[in-house]
Amino acid sequence: MFAYETWCAVAQVWDAQLAARSVLDGAGVWAGVLSSGRCAMDGPDGPVSADAGSLLIGASPLELTPEGPCHLLAVRLTGRMAEEFAAGLEGPFWAGGASAPMAAQLLARLRAGAAGADASGLAFRLLCELAGADPAAPALPPLVSRALAAMQQNYAGLYGVEELSAQLGVSKSHLIRVFRAAMGTSPGQYLTGVRIEAAKQLLARREYPLEVVASLCGFSGANYLCRVFRKATGLTPAAWRAVAAAPAAPENPLPLERELYV
């Protein structure tokens, strides 16, 4: 049997609100996203600070000092691919989220509880995404960081960019302009991508009817989900499920499933 974990595996997930100096240690390479606040990390030339939206990349140990309340989601990756990745790093660094725009989504999927071959594949995709991260890239603008956090936290409940811009207290045109400049895509397209990734998780894990998948992921109905999903992936939801579905559904529900059990 092929051992996925020998090539790339998730050894640890670290999801915490930082209030004091912390150390990320253990074998492998750490990858994370600072979802809120401001934090400093000890680097080769001394502490370097980063704002919300920045990506953390480095081999352990990583010493972090929050500059006020902040939240970090990070994973420790091990295996041969992680070792190769770590060997190419000159030291730990912060990178701008725009230089690896899919990293936050991949981290969120790993936090949601992916396991086995699925987790290994996501971990490998994360390393590939971070390979292009630029340590010199600036942190995302605060408005973009807030928009990303809002979409990740409530993609199923958002009606669209109009509602998102109202929540953020800016005009729709201003949000689109700032978001596109930082991320290279519009907030609407990004939100659709987040919803597609969520739908992929549900389709791969459980035999939910498409109407349920659509509802949990923020699509208006099964027909619209099918149309958008096929345009994004080249496959229908049913075809994706046939290819990606795990042999048995995990016992613990994903966060977006929990409302079904209330």
Please describe the topology of this protein.
Elements: E1 9-18, E2 22-24, E3 29-36, E4 38-43, E5 46-51, E6 55-59, E7 62-66, E8 70-78, H1 80-87, E9 93-95, H2 103-111, H3 116-130, H4 142-154, H5 161-168, H6 172-183, H7 187-205, H8 210-217, H9 222-233, H10 237-244
Antiparallel strand pairs: 1-8, 2-7, 3-6, 3-8, 4-5, 4-7, 6-9
Helix pairs in contact: 2-3, 7-8, 7-10, 8-9
Secondary-structure element order, as H and E? EEEEEEEEHEHHHHHHHHH
The tally of beta strands, per DSSP, is: 9
As an assembly, this protein is: single chain
Model regions low in confidence, pLDDT < 50 over at least 5 residues: 247-251
Per the principal axes of the C-alpha atoms, what is the gross shape? Answer: globular
| C-alpha termini separation | 39 Å
Radius of gyration: 18 Å
Largest sheet: 5 strands, antiparallel
Task: Estimate the strand proportion.
Answer: 15-25%
Q: On the 0-100 scale, what is the average pLDDT?
A: 84
- Helix count equals 10
User: How would you classify the helix and strand content by structural class?
Assistant: alpha+beta
Helix fraction bin: 40-55%
Main β-sheet, spatial strand arrangement: 1-8-3-6-9
